[in-house]
Structures are given as structure tokens and as C-alpha cells.
Amino acid sequence: MFALWYLTFAVDEIRKRLAWLFSSNKPAAQKALDNKPATPAPAAAPAPAPAPTVKPSPAAAPAKPSSPAPSPKPVAATVAEPPKPVTPPKPAVVQPAPTPAPAPVVAPTVVPKPTPAAPSSPAAPNTPTAPSTPPKAADSAKMPIPLPKSLTEANTNGNDNSTNGNAALNDVSLDKKLFDAKLPASKVPKVDQEQLKDASKDFIHGEANAFVQSIKEAQQAGYRKQDTMVDAAVLAKLEEGYAKLAASDSKSLLKKYLTKEVFDNLKNKVTPTFKSTLLDVIQSGLENHDSGVGIYAPDAEAYTVFADLFDPIIEDYHGGFKKTDKHPASDFGDVNSFGNVDPTNEYVISTRVRCGRSMQGYPFNPCLTEAQYKEMEEKVSSTLSSLEGELKGKFYPLTGMEKAVQQQLIDDHFLFKEGDRFLQAANACRFWPTGRGIYHNDNKRFLVWCNEEDHLRIISMQQGGDLGEIYRRLVTAVNEIEKRIPFSHDDRLGFLTFCPTNLGTTIRASVHIKVPKLASNKAKLEEVAAKYNLQVRGTRGEHTEAEGGVYDISNKRRMGLTEYQAVKEMYDGITELIKLEKSL
């Protein structure tokens, strides 16, 4: 399309230049014609009055195709010599109609204002005739530039019998000749004007889209560059911490999977929204080489940005949940299918089932502002205060809590406490105690932690081993809270939490169990527990020691299975441990 437009433009320019050349030689050619006898050559411009005997050639009639038709009004009265044998050419009467290009040819002696009283003036008519009146052979010698040879019909360099090849112009317009000189007639495409218009619109639209796309790509490149810019001080801490971890005897999953290649690939990355770095993810494990896992997700996007580290750790901890796996939909199953794991109360001291939840629309602890902590506490307090029945209770904010009340709740294993070095190293204890609190029902069998490790820890617990009753209470509470507070959920990872060990179902069903015979050989205890995907911890939970031979044993897997299946693993495992303890 562009080539066609350019060709048309070039042809138009050539036509204008030829017209100008013809016009500039017209006075000389006119003088030559005045000094020659009349010949039957093709008619030129109307002859002046002193040559009344010259008859226009019949072939000269179409010599002015591009000139506007003159007025048909008779003008014989304005001719100086009326008794002419032929109709004299129209005098130079200026018509009101606009004169098209090329410019009118005017002899040097023409008076600017034509009058009918000057018939003897040699002035040519004001209508443009130069393009339609080719010069005679005699005049061609006076022209500085000959016509192109492509304008001759016989292609004889202007030396044929048609007066320099210009006779062809009598039959075909100059525009077509000029066009055919550049593009053979056989190859001239037939252009559909509507199609050409549509093509023009498409071209402009395409160019505009390409320009907009280039701007977007430049912006995205800028964002990517910004998202991979990590402060030099952060990089220095990462390099130092990684060197110390690599040289340590740590057994953490962090050390196991943070290879040099993975470290170099992730150290310059940050999450898009909260700009969390690799240091935010691994700083707890870098400071605490005795960590079992060693990493936390400062925000939900970290699970994607730092997937090269999270995915293998998740697969290892959750029993083979691969990066290509998808966590199943939530399913609490038949809540009446579980019974009491220790009807005689010989081994199980207490049973607890809990789950973690993150409130939709908020980041995890390291990225929360003080205002967000206060806002979340208000939402949780008002929501829990509206619960009825067995779940009815009271919310206790940590801010302003009396020391005696706080200590009693800790001793009852209800209240979490500040000072966990693993969470502090992960930057999860900011603005303490703002936004933190605890809720429990009247009989203290149902409680909720607000902003300890996760936004919410929903817990159902009681003395003894009646897992069925405890599980039913938890399921009822979770469903009631979710009606009032939406939870963060991912299609692949399930419910999202601060620690990757709690992803998926987030369910942790545990017992405080006293098995002195198995405890005497802790390696044997852990071997049997691992067979049923159980985790053995101290009496007061993770990172604590057993007190009086009492261990906290729970299901380990939380991903790749439903809530019901997770609880059943614990139920089956504890039942088997009690049988083994009895047999020893």
C-alpha cells in the first residue's frame, strides 16, 4: 500500500515538472510558430488575431482533455476581425470558475486585466493548455530536456514519425503514460478503493498497537529491573549468612536445599507487592542453625517468587507433595467416625486439633503495619464475640492484659508468649503486643489465637483422648468463623500460612501422651512415629523438651490429603503406639 501511494506521489510530481517545462518554453515555441507557414500539424494554443487563415486540425479537438470546459456563451463580438472563415478561438475572458493545476501559461506581454478591446494582443488564453499541447518537432530542439523515451509508442528514443513520440499523448492521457512508464500495464493492479481505505485503517491501527505494545514492554522491563534490585546491605547479609550456614552442621531443610546454584538464582529477587527478599525468607534459619525447617513466607507471593527453595522443602516435609501436585479441596469428612483413642485414660493426657488461617487481604506478620494489626484484632474480636452455643466466650487482648491473667493463660497452655527466637528472627514479632490476643469459650475447650504466628490459630482441645468430640467442635467453629471472615486460599497450595509446614489443610491433630517404655529408646519411638507420618516434639511443642516423659505427637503431613485424612493418620498412629507401649 505504501509503495502504491509513493508511486502515485512520484507520478504527480513528474507531471507537474513536465508541465512547468512546457510552459517555460512556450513563448519561444510561439514565436517559431508565428514565423512558419501554416501546416496541418496538431493544433496548439489558439492562434493570435494576425493569423486568421489557420484551420485547426480535426485531430486537435481532443488536445485539451484536462482543461475545464469554457462557457458556451457566444463571444464573436469581441473579436477584432469578424469575417474569419472559421470560428475564432475564444478570447481570454476570465471565467469565475477556479483554474486547476498546472498554472496558466501567460505570455510576457499579456496585460494582467484582460479586456475585449485589445484583440491584437498576442496573449494566450488563461485556461491551461500546455499539458495537452505537445510541441512540434521543430520546437523540440529548443527544449532543454526531451521527453522520456518511455513516452513514445514505438520506443525509438523519440526518432519515429510521430514527432518525437509525442503523438501517443493524443490518445492516452499524460498521467496514464507517466504511470505506465514506471509500471507496465500488465502489472498495474486494480485497486478497490474501499479495500484500500480499510487497508489504510488496518495499517494505522497496527502501527498504533505496536507503539503501545512497545511502551508496555518497556514499562514491564522497568518493573522487572526494579523487582530484581536488592539493597547492597541485604546482599552482604545474605552472602555472610549463607557462608556460615554452609559451613555449619545444621540438619535443617534450609541447608539441605539451599544449594549455591539456588542461592545465586534467588538472592536478587523480590516479591512484586511487598518487596520481600530472600533474606526475609531464610533469616530465621540463618540465625538458628538448629531449626528443623528454617524458612518462612513473609507474604503469599514468596511461595511463587522463591519456589525453587520452597517447592523441594514442601515436598520433603509433606511426604512427597511435588511442585506439579495440586492440593485437594477441603473435606472434613464424617465428623462422627472418630472415637476415643485411649478409653481407659492410661496414656493420653490431652488431645488437641487445631488449624491455621490467614485473613484474606492481609500479608503475613513481617509485612503487617501497626494499623493493620489493630484493624485485624478488631475484626477478630467482634467476629468471635458473636459466636453462640458451646463456642460462646470472651476475647482477651494482650495489650493491657494484667500479668496475673497472662501467666495463668500460659500455664493452662492457652496463651502463646513473646520471645520465640525463631519467630523473632523471622521478623514476625513486630509491634508486640499490638494486635495480639486470645479468645476462649466458657469451659476453655475452644480457643483462638490472634496474630501469634498465623493470623488465626483455631484450636479445639480437652483432657483425655476423645478425638471424635474434639474434632466435631473444631469443624463447627471453622465453618462459623469462615462465614464472617474470608480466608486466604490457593488452588495448588490450599490454605496459605506463614510457615510452609502448615500449608494445605493446616490441620495438626496431636496428643500429649505418656509412653515411658518407648521414651527410654527415643530412636525407636521416632522410628515408629515416622512409619505413620507422625512428628514427635517436646511437651510444650516445637523446640521444647519432654517433661516427665510426656511427648507431643501429631500428624506431620498437611498437604496432598484432606482434613479428614490428616486427622485419621494421627488417629491410626496413636492407636498403634499405645498398642506397642502395652506390649513392651
From TrEMBL:
Record flagged with keyword Transferase: yes
Extent of Low complexity compositional bias: 120-138, 154-168
Pfam families hit by this protein: ATP-gua_Ptrans (PF00217), ATP-gua_PtransN (PF02807)
Any Gene Ontology CC annotation: extracellular space
PROSITE patterns: PHOSPHAGEN_KINASE, PHOSPHAGEN_KINASE_C, PHOSPHAGEN_KINASE_N
Annotated source species: Drosophila mojavensis
Stretch list, region Disordered: 28-168
Domain Phosphagen kinase N-terminal: residue ranges: 234-319
Family per similarity comment: Belongs to the ATP:guanido phosphotransferase family.
Enzyme Commission (EC) number: 2.7.3.3
Molecular function as annotated in GO: arginine kinase activity; ATP binding; creatine kinase activity
Record's keyword terms, sorted: ATP-binding, Kinase, Nucleotide-binding, Transferase
CDD domains in the record: arginine_kinase_like (cd07932)
One of the protein's GO biological processes: phosphocreatine biosynthetic process
Domain Phosphagen kinase C-terminal: residue ranges: 347-584
Ranges annotated as biased composition (Pro residues): 39-55, 82-119
Binding site for ATP: 350-354, 413, 457, 508-512, 537-542
Keyword Ubl conjugation included in the entry's annotation: no
Source species, domain of life: Eukaryota
Name the record gives this protein: arginine kinase
